[in-house]
Amino acid sequence: MTCQWQTGLLVPQPCEAPAMGGCSLCGRSLCMMHTVSGPNGPACPNCANSNQGYEQNEETELESSRSSYYTQYGGAQYFTNRDRQSVEREEVEGYDEFET
């Protein structure tokens, strides 16, 4: 089984490292690099970022930045149809118009 954590800020990519354990809060399979220690057992960077008592590291900081970016800009509503086509890799009609 491989690690189920997605790495990257704007374009998440699968980790693909072998899983060594799992998040005690959400159940994701995790490699050693994406496991964060805390009072409730091992956790993924997302759960560690959301719960107090977990150590902060590069992965939890990245998750915090990614979460605040998508919260601030509201996800896909700021994309044009052409941007969405690139992200979702599908044909979208009217790609030059902005959606509101």
Secondary structure layout:
Elements: E1 6-7, E2 13-14, E3 21-22, E4 29-30, H1 45-50, H2 58-73, H3 81-88
Antiparallel strand pairs: 1-2, 3-4
Can you offer a commentary on this structure?
The chain has helices at 45-50, 58-73, 81-88; strands spanning 6-7, 13-14, 21-22, 29-30. The chain has 100 residues and is of the alpha+beta class. The strands form two sheets. A two-stranded antiparallel ribbon has the order 1-2. A two-stranded antiparallel ribbon has the order 3-4. β3 and β4 form a beta hairpin. The termini are far apart.
Keywords:
two-stranded antiparallel ribbon, 30% helix, globular, alpha+beta, 3 helices, 100 residues
The ordered H/E elements are EEEEHHH
**Quaternary structure of the protein:** single chain
Dominant shape: globular
User: Between the first and last Cα atoms, what is the distance in angstroms?
Assistant: 41 Å
Based on CA atoms alone, the radius of gyration comes out at 17 Å
Assess the beta-strand content as a share of residues: 5-15%
Number of domains: 1
- Strand arrangement across the biggest beta sheet: 1-2
Q: Ranges with pLDDT <50 over ≥5 residues?
A: none
Helices and strands: which structural class?
Answer: alpha+beta
Strand segment tally: 4
Estimate percent helicity. 25-40%
